[in-house]
């Protein structure tokens, strides 16, 4: 079940950031699309965390970034295992494509920053992203998941995301943020 919780966490993370896109499209993602979004979202957070590890001198930001790299690298393997168990092949979707596009824009912005400005932008992004994940859990992912195992994992994933959000909020407040 731990594998399912971690995998659901990635799905929530990915879809949370792009739930508004699905609402505009008028329909929620299918299980294969959720899997595709999960793969993309994992890589996005791994890449952002690795960038933060290279750029930051702040120990709290470094710790948050390392947690994101570690957790999402582990999740990347879990995604494959759950997809195989559920016999689901990840599929592309407009949401996945938009997620990648938004991530490219965010990464370009982050790459152009340094010092305290980088730290603040990176941590603010983590807070916003994780809050969106929590909202999407209730409003988008759970209602659209068709597989019972996936749905159950999504319903059980809230503590994982809440922990990421709280860690990011703590770092944000230490940086003098919101």
Report a brief summary of the structure.
The chain is an all-alpha fold and 178 residues long.
Q: How would you portray this structure in words?
A:
The protein has seven helices and no strands. The protein is mainly alpha-helical. The longest helix has 30 residues, at 115-144. Mean pLDDT is 79; it is low at 1-26.
- Low-confidence parts: 1-26
Which fold does the CATH topology refer to?
Ferritin
Percent of residues in beta strands? under 5%
The number of distinct structural domains comes to 1
Main sheet properties: none
Second-tier CATH architecture: Up-down Bundle
Could you give me the name of the CATH homologous superfamily?
Answer: Ferritin, core subunit, four-helix bundle
Identify the overall geometry: globular
Helix content: over 70%
Rg, alpha carbons: 15 Å
Strand/helix succession: HHHHHHH
Q: What is the CATH level 1 assignment?
A: Mainly Alpha
- What is the overall pLDDT average? 79
End-to-end C-alpha gap: 35 Å
Number of helices: 7
The computed structural class is mainly alpha
Q: Would you count the extended β strands for me?
A: 0
